[in-house]
TrEMBL record:
Annotated GO CC locations: mitotic spindle; outer kinetochore; spindle microtubule
Organism taxonomic ancestry: Eukaryota, Metazoa, Chordata, Craniata, Vertebrata
A molecular function GO annotation: microtubule binding
Origin species: Salvelinus namaycush
Keyword Mitochondrion: no
BP-aspect Gene Ontology terms: cell division; chromosome segregation; mitotic cell cycle; regulation of microtubule polymerization or depolymerization
Keywords for the protein's UniProt record, in alphabetical order: Coiled coil
InterPro entries: SKA1, SKA1_MBD_sf
Gene this chain is encoded by: ska1
This protein's name: SKA complex subunit 1
Family: Belongs to the SKA1 family.
Amino acid sequence: MSHCELEDITLHLNDRISSTRRVLELRTIAKDQDKRVILGKIGQDILAIDGLLDQFEKCVGRQKDLLKHLKELEGFFEEDVKDGKNLRDNMPTHMPRKGQPAVHGIGPAGQSGPVNVQPVQQVHTRKTSKNQIREMEFITSPEFDTIPQYMKGRLTYEQLNTAVESINTAVTGKYKILNQSAKTLNNATRKLHQRFKEEENKDTKGLFFIVEADIKEFTQMKVDKRFQSILSMLRHCQRLREQRGGGITRYVLL
């Protein structure tokens, strides 16, 4: 029911109430034989008013439901805008920038032309003074297409790789500290170093892993339901696996 129809019901309801009021006023001066007719008329008007009130109540209920739905949509749009701004301000390093020339080469069947450049499939490492720190490979477009829609939800390819970059930031931050001698660290960093050591066990030897606390420590990524969905997609793409033990969930890079 539209806004105009709602106004029409309101006007009609007011007319009925005014008409009933006038009939009640006339009843006091009517003759006895006319009062029976007047009472019948009043009864009909009251039934009509009751019906209009039912319509009015249903219409108001529908409008409330619509308003609630619009509020939910507003929340979704605000979240999308926030994600878009975050993506704009934190553009992944592997993404091409506006104005960059397209890379040309030999395509399938020897055809020359623009070639879609995907992230290089190799183990990313950053060298430190002692060891190399492994990083997670970025998700390629074909891999992203294999992820089930129920798992992706509204998450985009760019947003997933932004999460990969955040995980790499956490891994690098953690192992840069671990690769230093505890004696050279300040109090705050020494506590982190101690926590990192306590989270290791015989099954993590030689592996690179992080926990949720590392995400919070080294990145601005929220550890929420969306984060859990991202982890599911990364497991699907064989970028990490979970290792549980001692009340800790470790996310191990593959």
